[in-house]
TrEMBL record:
It catalyses: ATP + protein L-histidine = ADP + protein N-phospho-L-histidine. This is histidine kinase. Keywords: ATP-binding, Kinase, Membrane, Nucleotide-binding, Phosphoprotein, Transferase, Transmembrane, Transmembrane helix, Two-component regulatory system. The lineage of its organism: Bacteria, Bacillati, Actinomycetota, Actinomycetes, Kitasatosporales. One of its GO terms (cellular component) is membrane. Its EC number is 2.7.13.3. Residues 1-21 are annotated as: Disordered. It is an enzyme of class 2 (transferase). It comes from the Bacteria. It comes from Streptomyces mobaraensis. The chain crosses the membrane at residues 37-56, 62-84, 139-160. Residues 39-158 form the Putative sensor domain.
Length: 294
């Protein structure tokens, strides 16, 4: 009879090497052994449902891949497989005490947006594909564990604890190997792809901003300068003094245009904004505006 202190049974939400902290398999059943038996008996139903789901969407998606609905169907099926993986991780956590971290959600954004981008990112989801593999190999394993466990309950119950521990350990290994998050390299690649999309979007926004500033600032001033010089050319013979005054104004406009181009080259950040603040910067812009500002 076992008289020593009862080994500590880890809670279902504790992390770490669960198998090393499990109580040893014994002929006398305890709560942990019954949890493992329940998990093994439920393998048949869960693996059958998962296999049917994966087989249906995978067959339909591959069959229709030559049409416009094939790839979106595959992507939608992979999103459903992620849900299957979440359920399996929860079942393993509750009945086997194995803690498998939830994978990161599918990255959003990137260089490809819209439905096409979503389909592309989903089809490259390694977490969903590994869960698909897990679901496919679970059916024969579920049939085996269900049959062995059920037979041991009736004809070999003295060794059921050892059998349950051995098969449950294999289940723990499969859950950790195929349902765990991607490795660090895969996560880093996904992060870099997302960052690349952000950089591309930011660069495009900067280009649009520079184009707008050129159009509304230096370009408008140069157009006004060309018109002023044209008028001065027409008046140079009729009214030399007025023409000289217009040329002088055009010279000032050239200086202002050059200053605006310098500000643009410095990153659309006028020095007066840094040195004297927003009020002085707005006053400077209003003073250089070709349209009178009250």
């Amino acid at each position: 009879m076992h008289t020593g202190p009862r080994p500590r049974v880890p809670g279902p939400h504790e992390a770490g090497p669960e198998d090393e902290r499990l109580p040893p398999a014994r002929f006398a059943f305890d709560a942990w052994t019954w949890k493992e038996v329940l998990y093994l008996l439920s393998n048949l139903l869960t693996s059958l449902l998962g296999f049917v789901y994966v087989a249906v969407w995978l067959f339909a998606g591959v069959l229709l891949s030559v049409t416009v609905v094939g790839l979106p169907l595959l992507a939608a099926g992979l999103m459903g497989v992620r849900f299957v993986g979440r359920m399996e991780r929860g079942r393993a956590r509750a009945l086997l005490g194995v803690r498998v971290d939830e994978p990161s959600p599918l990255p959003r954004g990137g260089s490809r947006r819209g439905p096409v981008g979503w389909v592309w990112r989903t089809l490259k989801d390694t977490v969903a594909w590994r869960t698909t593999l897990y679901t496919l190999i679970r059916l024969p394993w579920g049939v085996l564990t269900f049959g062995v466990t059920l037979a041991a309950l009736f004809v070999a119950w003295p060794v059921l604890g050892h059998l349950a521990r051995a098969m449950a350990s294999a289940d723990r290994a499969m859950a950790r190997g195929l349902l765990s998050p991607s490795d660090e390299l895969e996560r880093r690649v996904a992060e870099l792809e997302q960052d690349r999309g952000i950089v591309v979007d930011t660069a495009a926004a900067d280009l649009r901003r520079i184009e707008r500033d050129l159009h509304d600032g230096a370009q408008a001033r140069l157009v006004a300068l060309a018109m002023g010089l044209g008028l001065a050319k027409e008046k140079v013979l009729e009214d030399p003094e007025a023409a000289a005054k217009m040329v002088d104004e055009a010279h000032g406009e050239v200086k202002l245009a050059l200053q605006e181009l310098r500000d643009l080259a410095r990153g659309i950040h006028p020095a007066v904004l840094t040195d004297r603040g927003l009020d002085a910067a707005l006053s400077s812009v209003a003073g250089r505006c070709t349209v009178p500002v009250a």
